[in-house]
């Protein structure tokens, strides 16, 4: 059994034979369910360089010894920010295996920067752990190539999709993404952390209809896959 725990905003902890933390923005996150010092991880996946996604990855990696996996340029940036005190693994769009976990870094339509300088490209991740396939979209708009993710690596058991609008897909676009991905279940994320991305997840659920099971998680809640 694999557990997918929502930590708030776009942060998730996937727990099975390994603990995989994604976009651990906890400090300064008004929706965070835990503090950085309360999280354990074997791998930390970072989708892009924005502060609400890099988050506390360095602090957590220093404490736990977790490896940080990100786009090559983003990984180098994180290594520099940590003065080389954390282990980073830079990759690019494509598949790899790290410590027994199959990971595919896939495109995302979004910017990636430290707020001033562009740093690499944004991405999402497909993770295969203990026989389950989980897709974290990162920050993105919908695009038709999402259909390839299911074709190449599906069936996707759970898709974690942003619905906040303004910076990412809104409910309408995310519902179209569900149609393309053909995921069994979908969890909305990246909404209502701040006023510009305020959304009603029930509207997203209505738009998805019978295409997939929409599971609305509150920060701290988890889904068993």
TrEMBL record:
The keyword Oxidoreductase does not apply. InterPro entries: Metallo-B-lactamas (IPR001279), RibonucZ/Hydroxyglut_hydro (IPR036866), UPF0173 (IPR022877), UPF0173_UPF0282_UlaG_hydrolase (IPR050114). SUPFAM superfamilies: Metallo-hydrolase/oxidoreductase (SSF56281). It comes from the Archaea. GO terms for molecular function: hydrolase activity. NCBIfam families: PRK00685.1 (NF001911). Belongs to the UPF0173 family. This is UPF0173 metal-dependent hydrolase A3L09_10075. It comes from Thermococcus profundus.
């Amino acid at each position: 059994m694999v557990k997918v725990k929502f930590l708030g905003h776009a942060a998730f902890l996937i727990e099975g034979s390994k603990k995989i933390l994604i976009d651990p923005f906890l400090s300064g996150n008004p929706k965070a369910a835990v503090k950085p010092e309360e999280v354990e991880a074997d791998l930390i996946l970072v989708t892009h360089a924005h502060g609400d996604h890099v988050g506390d990855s360095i602090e957590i990696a220093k404490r736990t010894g977790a490896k940080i996996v990100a786009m090559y340029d983003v990984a180098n940036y994180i290594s520099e920010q940590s003065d080389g005190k954390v282990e980073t693994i830079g990759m690019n769009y494509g598949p790899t295996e790290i410590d027994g976990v199959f990971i595919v870094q896939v495109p995302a339509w979004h910017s990636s920067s430290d707020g001033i300088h562009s740093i690499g490209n944004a991405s999402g991740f497909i993770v295969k752990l203990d026989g389950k396939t989980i897709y974290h979209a990162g920050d993105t708009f919908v695009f038709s190539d999402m259909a390839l993710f299911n074709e190449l690596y599906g069936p996707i058991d759970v898709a974690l999709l942003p619905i906040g609008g303004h910076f990412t897909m809104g409910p309408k676009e995310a519902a179209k993404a569900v149609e393309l991905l053909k995921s069994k279940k979908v969890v909305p994320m990246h909404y209502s952390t701040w006023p510009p991305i305020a959304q009603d997840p029930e509207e997203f659920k209505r738009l998805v209809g019978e295409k997939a099971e929409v599971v609305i998680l509150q920060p701290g809640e988890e889904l068993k896959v």
